[in-house]
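Section 4.2 – Deliverable D4.2 (structural model, holo form)

The reporting period included a commitment to supply a predicted holo structure for the target in complex with protoporphyrin IX containing FE. Inputs used:
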Amino acid sequence: MLIKQAQDLTEADVTPPELYRERRRFIQAGLAAGTAWAWPWLAQGAIKLGEIAPGPFSSDEEKTPYKDVTSYNNFYEFGTGKADPAIRSASLITDPWSVEVSGECDRPGSLGLEDILKAHPLQERIYRLRCVEGWSMVIPWVGFPLADFIQRFQPNSRAKYVEFETLYDKAQMPGQRRRVLNWPYREGLRMDEAMHPLTLLAVGLYGEPLPNQNGAPIRLVVPWKYGFKSIKSIVKVRFRETQPVSSWQQAAPSEYGFYSNVNPNVDHPRWSQRRERRIGEFGKRKTLMFNGYAEQVASLYSGMDLKKNF
Amino acid sequence: MPIALTKSLIFSLGLLPAALLAWQFYRDELGANPIEAITHGSGEWTLRWLLVTLAMTPLKRWSGWSWPVRVRRMLGLFAFFYACLHLMTYLWLDQFFDWPEIWLDILDRPFITVGMLAFVLLLPLALTSNRYSIKKLGRNWKRLHRLAYVIPLLGVLHFVWLVKADLREPAIYALVLAALLAVRLPASRRKEKAKVSRQTAG
Ligand code: HEM
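Output (structure tokens):
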């Protein structure tokens, strides 16, 4: 069933690094010029990304255009329309920014974004993103493994889960003025999911700092789960002994489970999950188990009934 | 304004949203997911025309104009036209005519079930929206066309059941529909009649 893909091979592997970087810089310059013209409201984070090395697990599929990745977003903190986040997120202030880490760990604390960035070399990872609504993208993220971040805080033996929280500030996030979800947005992972090498803390995309609408300045990327698990604009991380309840679980427990792994065999009550529309494509493609990352993550769930633990 | 002119004006207005959608599609201005934009656009316009159609009788009563009821059938047909676009988008661009899958969707997903029911109920109305049928059906025509109250109710329910969390938009449609139905209640009708008879007497 599994189609072997050249998953660990990126363009960078076959291109000399200097040339790759050169080309990337060229593309970035063009991108910046192009997007400034096309998207005057595109608010880019204040942080600077240093060196970016190509990372493992990258897909070689055609990337979703930058314009689509940054103009079609679900980020209810800025409104429930797909275009709202791009139009209304300029009010988000991402500098200064800090992430507070607490709960079941030996070294809790608060870290400024600069300190986080200093400690972790950045990688580019081209991942598929599958939304629960039945569409998907291919996005070149820039970030580092969540596991590396977590290890700095030395979680103790009671840390079975990690909970994340998005900023809660109605002035900066106008969508929070209406109680569409129970703010602040919360998400969670089991510890082994959080420590999995695929799980990324992203600070950029297409070689640039994350635009606000994509979850600036720091967000989670869990490519084998539906997009809403990849929480944006994170301000809190907490290690817990008990399973956290995510915002969507709270809103509709029968529709959104804790795991929310991409699974073509388990329908959402309102949508079949068998197929998906890749943004930019006319037809639909078959949705792959664990969004095509089964080889890497299926073992995390061996013995579990995925229909029950949806 | 002669009724023929009013009718052509409203006819053009009815085509406008579809033309705009087609133009934006052609110009690639519907965003990253144009098919979703068409599904949503056609769905919303179906509901809007259904409500506009329902607004014609009260409009006539309040304004005294006669044209609203004379364009009512055309407006209803526009609702049907947009419903056809909406359904076609679903059958073709969403499901690519995968009939077993479509059938499962209709059975399994409440929002599709009521949407489909609304469409099926629209069919006899569209087929009898002509002078010949009115004559032929007599009193039964009126009875049949009372479905025009039920269909937007199903349409609103369809909308409520398909949104993920934000009920604001369907709630607005529900309020408008409630108002349009409320002015038809006997109590409200009696007051209106009393007013009208006072005016004609005076
Ligand atoms: C009189 C009949 C109908 C009305 C008034 C109606 C109205 C609507 C409205 C208002 C929307 C939401 C638009 C938005 O979110 O902006 C919608 C979406 C939709 N409708 Fe309908 N509809 C009708 C019939 C149908 C039928 C027959 C089907 C398919 C069998 C259908 C399938 C859909 C789908 C798939 C969506 C999009 C759902 C999503 O985005 O998740 N509708 N419709």
